[in-house]
Amino acid sequence: MATTPPWRGSSWSDLNPVRVRLTVAYDGSDFSGFARNPGVETVAGTLGAALQRALGHPVELTCAGRTDAGVHAWGQVVSFDADRDVADPALLQRSVNRQCGPRIVVREASIAPEGFDARRWARSRRYRYTVLNRPVADPFLAATTWHVEQPLDLAAMRLACDPLLGEHDFSSFCRRPRPPSGERPSLVRRVLDAGWRDLGDGLLRFEIEATSFCHQMVRSVVGTLVETGTGRKRAGEVLAIRDARDRAAAGQLAPAHGLCLWEVRYG
Question: For the whole model, what pTM was predicted?
C-alpha cells in the first residue's frame, strides 16, 4: 500500500479515483454509533482512520444505515472513493482487519460500479433483534441480547406484527428529528417483512425489513411487541398505537445491544 500520501498537492482528478464498496461487521458495544463524532469513538471514525493508513489518503465514508450507540452490524455496507493505484480490495480488507479486528471487520471488499452509493442505491435494510427469554441471564449472550425474565407469549407477539406491514406513518415508533428549518420531515416508511422466530433455548429473534427506517424505529417496535408478550398490551392495540402517530402511545425503547443491522439489499 502507499506510504507517501498521493493526495498531497493533488486533486481527485489527478489521482484517478475509483469507488470502493465494503461489507462491514462490527460489535457496537463500545462505539458511540456509526457516524463520525469529534471527541468520541465511532465506527466511521475508527474505520476511516484505518482506511487512511492503508491507502495513504483520507476517505469520506457513506454507509447504508447509521446505527446508534451500542447497535451492532453484520451486513453494513460502506462506499468511498480511493486512488485507483492503491485501492486493492484484498489488501484493503487484510489491512483493516489487522488494524481493527475483531471489533470491526471487513467481510467483503470490491471495486463498485461508477456512482455506487451505499445509502442511495440500497433497496431495503434488514435488522435483527434478539431477546433472551429465560429466568436467568447468560453472560456469554449479554452483549448481543435483551434479557427478559418474564415469560413471553410468542403467539401474541407474532400477531402484533401484522399492523406493521405496508406503508404507514411510523411517528409512534420514531424519535422525531428537529431540523434547523423547523419543518417536520415525513416519518412514512414501507415495511416489507416483520416477524418473530423461536430459536430454542429461550432465544427469540425478531426480524424486520423496510425500504428505510427512522431513528430508533426498530427498538421502539421491539419494545412495544415485548409488552404485548408480557400482557401489558394486547396485540390488537398495535394498530391503534400505529395510527395514533404519538410516541407516547408506544411501548418502552428496547436496549440498543440486542439490535443488529443484518443485511442491506441492492438491485
Answer: 0.92
